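INFO worker-7 received task bundle
INFO bundle size: 2
INFO processing item 0
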Amino acid sequence: MECFTSRVNLMTGKSEWIVEKESYDYHQEIARSGYTDMLHDEERNKKYDAALKKAIDMMHGQSLKANVLDIGTGTGLLSMMAARSGADTIVAIEAFTPMAECAKKIIKQNGFENRIEIINKRSTEVTVGPGGDMKKRANILVTEVFDTELIGEGAIATFNHAHQFLLEDNCIVVPWCANMFAQVVHSELVSRWSRLKTCGNTPGYGEISVPAALNNYNGSASLHDLQLDQISTDDFSSICNPVKVFQFDFSGKGLLQKDERTVNDVIAKTSGTCHGVFVWWELQMDMFGEIMLSCAPHWALSCGGHMTSTQWRDHWMQAIFYPKTSLTLSQGDSFKLISKHDEYSLAFDVCQEINKCEKRMEEKPNILHLVCNRSRLGMMSDFTRNQVFVEVLSKVKKDSVCICLGDSSFLPIMAAKMGIKKIFAIETDRASADLMHEFIKCNHLTHQVTVIRKNPEDLTHQDVQDLKIDVILGEPYFFNSLLPWHNLHFWYAASSIKRNLSPDAQVCPAKMRIKAVAVRFKDLWKIRAAVGICEGFDISEFDKLIETSHDIADDQVEPQPLWEYPSIAMTTESSLLDIDLSAIRAEEKLSKEGNMVFQCDGLVNGVAIWADYLFDEDETLVVTSGPRETIAVEKHISWDMYTRQGVYLFRNQVPVKYDQNLNYKITFNVKNGDIEMHFGLKSLC
């Protein structure tokens, strides 16, 4: 069966109906589940296995049966570990029906169908006793219901309910408890994700002024989850050592609190401004603290002054929280680290006066942080990027009439600062328009810059004051863009205002170039790689399910912030397709085939793809979403930190030889905005 699904086309900006299989939502949920990454997490698997065996042995050592309850069993891996370690009874709960059915197949394939009972319900709906789902309470609980914030998947309610209704009083819980750590840091890099440092230095006119009210605190309370290991220790200084701010006791000695606040008195070990709070957690897997599973970044796990390697995982990362209080300290100053959590989320702040800090934590985000996500804030503060725009605008005639197409762009402000006569800024979002008005007012540009809150296709001559547009400007940047070429929505918007243009109107940027490089990802490939055998169990039924779901629900190319995922170049960069923004026609279909040639032997597991926007004929003024340095074969690639790149992952790592070809085909259907890419390996002749 097939059905019609409504979606917004990110390139054209239009709503459209597409035909999807009736099971599309089902497969999309499976494809997004993240189970593959968890199953590739060897440290997690081995430590759960060790802690489970220890708990079962302890029960048997007391001449008690080991009755195991596994909440959120997924593939059934932890339940099979319990069976292998001699558990007497095992009940596995899984609310997600497709995974419950998959777990049944896996358990049967591994010969445990008579030892493990699966209940397809939420654990909070399970009943115990005569006629209930479970005959009796369990005396061992094993569960993994954690996310980057630890409690974001409902761990507090899950454990509290289990202890009240599903477990015996003197049970053993795996994991036994969790400790959460916070570390306050000074970092110019981190600060760019929360505050506008500079918005473009316009020669002769100074920098764009940022309204004081918009920069008076560092951002919203929500977490910024990322791979902290990829932030160089040269890019931050620790204002304090890691501080244990919470302990979550899962053992059942008492109910977990849904709302909790701690205040830690801390002495600054270095001088600096508190730009961010790095946060991670560790699990104490057994009651004695002999088996520990940590999500700490490598510098927090250093041993004897030497950095230690950490297990890569994408299902649990670390987080940055941005204090609402801007606090600058000198070495030796005392300050307070305030940590709060509710049932699902965390918040942090720093202060020297506790009363002021409490009020700040309750404040709502200002309009800047409502409009701009963290990557966008970093992009706006990117000096290299802004300098390109300054050079572009310096070539625009001062008596020009310009129109800027994009979301929350400072190009209109920069253009006015540089003396361009008139600039119209199209802002379709109300909050984004309000933000632009704040900057116009702060920089005294009300006569030069006019904000128009309309879709470009609805623009009238009256909206542009009966003027003809000489230059169409764009970074380009749009909120809804996921992949770098989605910002080509700029061309579709520009095409809809042709009636308002002067005969020789310029388009800036003039060209978009899609580029690619074949790579060997150190770890990212694991999110799509088959699991096969996991800790001695055959998980191939899961591989079949996830592969089918990816084929149905996922695009060939997915967005990823590649600066977080180390990769080594296996080829030089290749230009896949050039799109001339002043010449393409809506009825066209652009297509190109070619080869990328491997420059070394080794394993390849993906292709990284990005877009360059070219602003001049000489191709010297370029804004890229790709590498920040020239790509060198067999060297790590330094990626732009404020955009996401496209990733095409092979299903398996493939050995290749020097001079072997990777062929590609890229097709751009201009009419509907679809860009399709295909990559395939050619054998050596």
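INFO item 0 finished
INFO processing item 1
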Amino acid sequence: TSISSAGGSPTIRIPQDRQWGKAECDNLPHHDFECPPERLVDIEVTIQEGLDIVEQGVQSNFRVDPLVIVRLHRGGKTTVLKALFQRLKESNYLPIIISLSGLFYLRPGDSPLQALIRLIAVQFVDVLPDETASNFVCREQDLCRYLTWLSESHKKHIVLIVDELDRLGVPLDVQVAEFLKRCFLDKVGHFVVFSSHVSLTVDTDEPVASSYMTSSVIPPSNRYVRMIHLPFCSDKMRLREMGDVYSALTDLDVTLGGCIPSLVYVKYQTQEKPMEEKFNTTMGFLVKYRHAYLFQCQRELIEGFLWELRDGTRAQSLFSSFADTFLIASLTHVRYPLPYVACIWEWLTDDGSLKTLIATLSLVASLVEGGKEWEVVIVTAMYLRFLFCKYVPVVNGATNRDPLNIAMDGVGSVTVCDIPGEIHTIEHALIYLRGLFLSSQKPLAPLSVVIVVPRYNKFPDLDGLILYTDRSGQIKTHGYQAKTKRGYPRHDLPETIDSCFLLRGCSPERPLRRNKWYYVEEDTLLDLLGFNLRPFYTRDWGSVATEDLFD
């Protein structure tokens, strides 16, 4: 059996008595931020399910479906593949593991298939990296003949494991798909496992949705893919066992990571690229011409995404295929890790407001003094709900209103506004806002919503204000309180405030309730949070302080 090199250089021959063992995990790129398999919480269930599917695949006499690990960046895909590789070796298989991330690239004139075959072949040949990058090539028939010989001579099954197969095209390159089916999936004793950042099949009849997209909703097909449980954990005590740096992990840390152990892990590690850069790279695989595509269907995408945040029901749009990379609550529901909500919203609208809010939430995840983390969750929830009212103005034939019944006439615009830290009282805050929004030079348009957040952390009585301009142009001023460490409101509010909302659990008994305060019940709070933010709601609000440092 021979694997040839180009440019007239000598043929590289592989001795048939060569001992197996060249294709080891250390051939894959390793990053310090990766969670070691032995530390990844809940990985054992994943590996066992993977072994079962591999066993079914190699034994089948019929065409089989590949096993696919699909999740967002930093979701633990590579860690799972490495662990599965090691377990397969221990289970008497001949696994081959390759990665299309890191240093992998297409040489000039390379087809995706040539690059893939070359990367598989070099697992069995001692060549220098420079040789691999310059002139090393391999014919498909030589590689397949050698793999067949390996399997038969060792009496073991071949399992090809490919990390980030989506780098060869979305939809998958036709030649690559046919090669995988021909040499692995349709051959008894061979099997394929691969990871991807987006939904991907090995079918070659996937239509392109429009001239602006490289892929859209993955259609029903004759050959499906097998998917398995991926590591998931909401128990901070178990996640703290990932290392000493996680010993103070909070519930908020866990929820911000979507309860995905690897995503929680990398928050405290040095990462090579910012999250939004990784996200935008993935979106580049899905949408070739972003601006042209959004011009065509931006409104539809925004409405579908906001409905997903609202009730979890997967929308039939671009994100139907992308949603598989996130946390699936069931076959029909999806829940996005909150940092990715900001990435998606900015990609859709070029609006970075959500990213700022969620960055603040992440920053205060370990700063529980004062209960500010819940306040930022509430501001985020209100912002998302008012956006939902704006982009989905009518639901069931009626005006789409927020749960607090603030925007009674509907929503035309939503903004978040800071009050400078030197402003310490409600009276001075209202004077500042009148100068900012109520002057004739900058009047608020009808149906405007402004969420006002004081920078002064000990602002009295309120944690913030909400301004709303009704259809006639009249401005209503509402207050809210959300910090979990505050005591109950102790003062009646000035006439200039129309109403206030206590947006946390443990409402006081009726005799202790103050004038113009609405004590929001649990059902209304859960409605405000929507399906996506519901995990942030705690069932244990603790005791309410009789005194605090705010008022």
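INFO item 1 finished
INFO post-check item 1: The two ends are 82 Å apart (CA to CA).
INFO post-check item 1: The longest strand covers residues 190-196.
INFO worker-7 idle
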